[in-house]
Design a protein that fits this description.
Layout lengths: L1 H9 L2 H22 L17 H21 L4 H4 L1 H18 L1 E3 L2 E7 L2 E3 L1 H17 L9 H20 L3 H5 L4 H7 L5 H18 L2 H18 L4 H32 L2 H11 L8 H14 L11 H4 L11 H33 L4 H25 L17 H19 L8
Antiparallel strand pairs: 1-2, 2-3
Keywords: Cell membrane, Cell shape, Cell wall biogenesis/degradation, Glycosyltransferase, Membrane, Peptidoglycan synthesis, Transferase, Transmembrane, Transmembrane helix
Subcellular location: Membrane
Membrane topology: Multi-pass membrane protein
């Protein structure tokens, strides 16, 4: 009994309260997204559980069981068994192409009766655990090439296997581990290189190569012209600037080649729709256009709960899952959207604060892994519903419909809260 009381007193109830609020708000919006006053079934009606709202309620109930199980496990288990957990999910990702089923064009699911589970969602947690365990080793220094390559291998293996299952969106989430690595000593050049690569990629999609070339020349000329360069170094400076411009242009043409040759047609179309929503007016373009209409029609205060017309007439595909954010925008308006964003940013800030309070490097690194994954999902999901990100089909944490996503986010979060509750029992390092 004393151990239980100690756990209750040490667990972070602020984070748990925000989690409960998000899950409740998510379920209410899923309910609204599938609500039909003409065929409505009450919560005590068996037919209610044939709807997404009813199924999500079951997933929420089972998530509570998962939380209890996590808190019942010894906190040392997660670090000790991280390699086994990681290897198990790598094995499942290998088996998916052979034993899995296809859902919405993605062959990345296991089917057990009426239940489908996506191992890629849980592989994020497994990767965060093993990465944190590796970084916690005394000899690991992320400024060394050997350690950087090993960390990259831990992240890259599940990414490759997930891409092989045609689930590019979930694979891209693994890029969020750069936040974890940077916090634990990875040189700043790597995140900077990643941001520069994303900038070049977007620029190559939006601008012609000639426009980019002229822009680079002008920028280089301004920098050289305003810098105090000695005459004897002028030739060397021009050479470096020329090499830099050539390198950037090579990447620009590489992006063009990759988009038009390497990427599959549906992936290419998602990028084209981001640039021009009218490109595919009956497919992805339709989905994005209707999402924007739904969010914009909400105005400042929204139309009110269960009053969304775009929702009621099924204008937005996948509105209870990947596009749940447009339900919030339509029914709660700009004010409701702002509240969700502010609360989620406070939630992420709280997790970073808790991560920095950890005495164990393992717990701190894992905490930043949790922050990175949740932030990536949050940023990209909202971005794709308003047309700032390509539609890659990743859920909004705790809000979107789906058992795999809710379970995986719950496990991801509560493992960290379990570690945090035993902060004083861990050796500092």
């Amino acid at each position: 009994m004393s151990n239980q009381n100690q756990l209750v007193s040490k667990v972070d109830w602020i984070t748990i309260s925000l989690y409960a609020l998000f899950v409740l708000a998510g379920w209410m919006n899923i309910y609204s997204a599938v609500y039909n006053p003409e065929t409505h079934n009450w919560i005590f009606d068996a037919k209610f559980y044939d709807s997404n709202a009813g199924k999500q309620l079951i997933w929420i109930g089972t998530s509570l069981i998962l939380i209890i199980c996590i808190f019942a496990i010894d906190f040392r288990f997660f670090e000790a068994f991280a390699p086994i957990i990681y290897a198990s999910f790598i094995g499942l990702l290998i088996l998916v192409p052979f034993l899995g089923v296809t859902v919405n064009g993605s062959h990345s699911w296991f089917k057990f009766g009426s239940i489908t589970i996506q191992p890629a969602e849980f592989a994020k947690t497994a990767t965060a655990l093993l990465l944190a365990k590796y970084i916690n080793e005394p000899q690991v220094n992320l400024t060394k090439w050997k350690n950087q390559w090993f960390a990259a291998a831990i992240i890259g293996l599940p990414m490759i296997l997930i891409i092989a299952s045609n689930e590019t969106g979930s694979a891209l989430v693994f890029a969020s581990f750069l936040i974890l690595l940077y916090r634990e000593g990875l040189p700043g050049e790597y995140p900077g290189l990643f941001i520069a690569s994303v900038t070049i990629f977007v620029s190559a999609l939006l601008l012609s190569p000639w426009t980019i070339l002229v822009t680079l020349i002008v920028i280089a000329g301004c920098i050289i012209g305003l810098s105090p360069i000695y005459v004897q170094r002028l030739k060397q400076t021009y050479m470096k600037a020329a090499m830099f411009i050539v390198g950037i242009m090579f990447m620009v043409f590489l992006v063009d080649f990759a988009v038009n040759t390497v990427l599959k047609e549906h992936q290419r179309n998602r990028i084209k729709v981001l640039i021009d929503p009218s490109f595919d007016p009956r497919g992805l373009g339709y989905q994005l256009t209707q999402s924007k209409i739904a969010i914009g029609s909400g105005g400042f205060w929204g139309k009110g709960y269960l009053q969304g017309t775009q929702t009621k007439f099924d204008f937005v595909p996948a509105q209870s899952s990947d596009f749940i954010f447009c339900t919030i925008g339509e029914e709660q308006g700009f004010f409701g959207v702002l509240v969700v964003i502010v609360l989620f940013m406070a939630f992420l800030w709280r997790l970073m604060y808790l991560a920095d309070q950890q005495r164990s490097r393992f717990a701190r690194a894992y905490g930043y892994g949790v922050v990175g994954i949740l932030f990536f999902h949050f940023l990209v999901n909202i971005g794709m519903t308003i047309g700032l990100m390509p539609i890659i089909g990743i859920p909004l944490p705790f809000f979107s419909y789906g058992g795999s996503s809710l379970w995986s986010f719950t496990i991801l979060l509560f493992i960290f809260l379990k570690l945090d509750s035993h902060r004083s029992d861990m050796l500092s390092r």
